[in-house]
Structure formats: structure tokens, C-alpha cells
Amino acid sequence: MPSKTDARILAITQKIVERSKKSRAIYLKRMKEAHHRGVGRGHLGCSNLAHAMAPCSNDEKKTLEAMQKENIAIVSAYNDMLSAHQPFVTYPSLIKRALAFAGATAQFAGGVPAMCDGVTQSQPGMELSLFSRDNIAMGTAIALSHNMFDGAVMLGVCDKIVPGMFIGAMAFGHLPIVFAPAGPMPSGISNAKKAKVRQEFAEGKVGEDELLKAESASYHSAGTCTFYGTANSNQMLMEIMGLHLPGASFENTNTPLRDALTEAVTLKLLEYSPLGENYMPISQLIDEKSFVNAIIGLLATGGSTNHTMHLIAMARACGIVLTWDDFDALSQITPLLCKMYPNGSADVNHFHKAGGMAVVIAELLSARLLHEDVNTLMGQGLSKYIQEPYLEDGVLKYKEASGVSQDTDVISSVANPFSHEGGLRVLDGNIGRSVIKTSALKEEHRVITAPAKVFHSQEALKEAFKEGKLDMDFVAVLPYQGPKANGMPELHGLLPSMGALQDRGFKVAIVTDGRMSGASGKVASAIHLCPEAKDGGVLAKIHDGDIISLNCDDGTLTLHVSETVIKNRRIPKVDFSHNEYGVGRELFSVMRCAASSAEEGACSFSLSGAELC
Questions:
Q1: Which residues are registered as beta bridge partners of 432?
Q2: In CATH, what number is assigned to the domain containing residue 510?
Q3: For the chain, which terminal residue's Cβ has fewer other Cβ atoms within 10 angstroms, N or C?
Q4: Structural domain boundaries enclosing 497
Q5: Which residues pair with 387 in a beta bridge?
Q6: Of 425, 419, 420, nearest to 438 (Cα)?
Q7: What is the pTM of this model?
Q8: Any idea what DSSP says for residue 489?
């Protein structure tokens, strides 16, 4: 297999390295200073240690007192309301048992919140969703702040949880840290059928009973939702970045192989322990090449637009500066290899059965479209991830994967991709800069010119749809949905109405400084617009009837109004008081005020101390 990487990818990577030189050096210096020889708890005073050991068994206390073996932190997003995180209920005992056989100990260091965008979708609670990522990062740091640990295992799956845990973990980058997923639930009704019923409900063709029946047949058991949204994009990222074991991302929950993978990834911490000769902290395992691989994986699989913010924030937690231009440049040379809902009918179980991550990585490596020479949990080299796990007499083993798709309708090849470009683009123009998910767009929906219709909430648009006022070509403009305005909730509730209008033959699109769901894509949506309306962006000055052009092919977003007119338009006063309280929103006011732009990761705190966020 060729070891060299495509020159274009090398050039983009080098730009990132040069751009990050100062901040990366600061970060690595801090991690080096944080590293200490011996066990982490060795520097604690007797009273400190006694407090930390108080609830432990006598055997655990003896091991901890001896100061000879590792003590591993468990940080978990477990709760029993959310299907993706409910399986974590058994993980702590599993992890502790595996480590005990190796003579080490583990402690449940802390829990972090796990919001489900599926539950809060179109609800006021969605306005807490994005900033829950930063809350999770802080919670992870609090869990690890006791300095009792020689490594950590992160138990998280969904949208903001994995990015938040990653950011928090990187503040403790002197430790080896791994991520253990819960796995997807088995497939329910098809995503296409679910979407159809949602649209029929929006059109008044079916009632709530039929809608709930369809939703419950889709989300029906423990495990991650099976569509390829942000949660499953997280799992793909952790594997292609080398923080999961090969084949671990999409193995179903509550299976013997799933448990064996969890035990095995935990024991990797002992291999890379500060006490051993192969010390590999997460700050050294992850570098600029890891993030380039992550972006390419996202583009090749048609992943979530949310990661145009999360990956930027995650990188900055390591002192690495990514930009949307990096995403756009890589998208133009990365083929789209996968068709999973929303850009296809398959789900992640079909993807895994077709060969999953091993096929994607093999295809991209063979075409020189990934950095092979990266550190991973399996050692040096991403080619180690072209393997499949299996059990033999209850023992986890690996075999070489064929690297060839078993279903070319789900995973294609670099030679015959679904598209010669990746699934995301950056749009730029006199309205500002935005991102758009192109992987699920039909060719006839990639270029749209139509008059604007301005709405200040998705509820207002849905009401206009119900009243039959939207049977026309138009671009729905939703300002004041950005991080500083209302916390940047997802606007997924727009899609049934807008999708129905598109199916009726109307040319429709969305332009907003808000987010869309990671499962969105059917309707052309220029999202994460910067500068946002609350920062005085042009978005706030758009009037009903203004002509807007959205062009995915040439990467432009244009308001056809003269610069003079735009400059002289006053920004209307908007009352934000209804977004400032209720369901805990008042507790997040500082985050909204401090938030950086979406293009800078929508961070509410500084990362790496290098004035990056």
C-alpha cells in the first residue's frame, strides 16, 4: 500500500502546521510540564489520598497505597433516558474487572450531562444544546482534576458529548486517554419511511398516532440512533483518529463482542501508561495529521455539518488552528464514498455490514487521501485499522479485512464514488460565510435563486406553511439563531415543511446563522452563517422580497441588493428576553455573551491560552 500522501493534502496539512506553530508549541510545553514520573496519586498528601480511597474495597486500597500500579479514571455520560447512553450502565464494572485482572484499579471519576437533540428538537431546551458541549468539557476537567489518575476512559456517544469530552480530555493531555462507544441499536423501520411519515404529518395527511408509531418503530431500543447524523459521525471520527479500536464504532450494543472491545480498549491504557516504556499521552497521539484525517473521513462519509464547529473547537483544545477553508479545500479533493441516511436509504448497521470503517480507510489510503503515518491506539500507522475484530472462544482477535465493499450501494470506491467531491462545502458572499451539506442534495437543488422570506423562528415558518402561504419559490431566511442570540438551536423542525414544498416542485432553500440537524440535507441549507445577525451581520438586514442566490457549485451566497442599500439599512431591534429564561436558559447567559463565531468553533471559553477562541 502506498505510504505517501497526496501532495495536495500534504500542502493543506503544512498550512495548518504553520498556522498552529505558536499555539501548538504552547500546548505541548504545558503537557510536558504536567507529566510526572510515577503514579499520578503519588504527589497527594495522606489526607488527600485517604479521601480519594475512602469508598474503595480493602484490596483496592492496598493497590492504591502501594503506588505501583495504574489507577484509571472513568468519565461517563450515562443516563437511562437516552438510548445511546443507557448501555453505559454496565461499563464501569466491566472496566474495573478488566483492570483488576491486570493488577490495576479504576474509579468512576465523574459523570457529565448528555442532552439528546432528538428529545429537545423544536423545544426551548434545544437552546442549551450547543453549549452543553462546553459544560461537558468542564465537567470532564472537574472529574480528572483530582489528579488521582494515570489514564482515563471516556464513555460518550452523541452530538455534543464526544466533542465536549475530547476538549476536556485535552486539558489533561499528559495522560493516555481512550474513548469507548456504546454501539448502535439494531435497525428499525427505514429512515426513508420515517421521513415520509414526518412530511405527511406536516402536510396534515396523517395524525399524531401514526407519527408516534413511526417514530417509535425507528427509535426502539438501547443504542445509538441508526441514521448517520452527528452521533455516528462522532464514532467515525474517533476511529479514523485512532482513539477507538478498529471496527469498534458500529458494533451493536449489548453483544459479547461489544463488551470484549470495551475491555480491550481499557487495557490499552496500561500499554501506554506513564509507568511503562511505551508512554503515549493523548497530546502526542493526536496531531495536525490526525485532524486532517478526521476532516477527510467526515467528507468521504457525508458526515454532520455540526463538525464544522466541533472539530475546530476540538483542534483548538490541542493548540491546532483549523479553518473552514481547510474543510472546503479538502472537500474539493475528497470523494464521497458512502450513502447513509440522510443522503441514502441505508443506516449505520448496513454500513458496518458492508465493511464499514475498514473499507473507507482502505479506499482512502490506497488513493493516498489519508495520512497513514499517524499514532493510533494500535500503534504507528492507520493501516492497522484495516482489520476486523472477532471472538474466538471468548477471546478478542483481529483478522485482516478485505478492504472491499460488500454493498456498493452503501460504500462505493474512490474509482467510482457517489460524488467526486466531499459532502460539505463553504459558501461565501456578501451575506457572509456559511457551510452547507451537499451530500444529500439532488443536482437540481444545488443552485437556487429566489426571493427571501424572513422568519424569526421555525414556528413562524411552520405556521405560514400550514396556512398555505408558502406555495412559491423562496429562500427562507432565519436570522438571530446564532450562538450569541439564542444558543444556536438546531432548526430541524423546518425540514418536513420545506421538504414538502420542494417535493411539490418549488425551488426552496434556507439561509440562517443557526444549525440544522446532522441528519439534514434534503433542502439546500446555508447554515452557521458568520457574522451572525446579533453581531450586526448582513443577515439581519435582509428584507422580504430581496433576491438571494445560493450556489453549491461555485461556493457562493449572494444577496442581490446594492452595497449602498445594504449599508444604509437599519438593523431592526429584536427582543431576546424570551430566550433568556426558562428550562435553565438563564444559567447559560454567560456562555451566550462569550461565544465566539461558528467559524471559530462557537466556544464560550478560551482554549490553550493562545487567544484562539
A1: 429
A2: 3.50.30.80
A3: N
A4: 424-578
A5: 400
A6: 425
A7: 0.94
A8: -
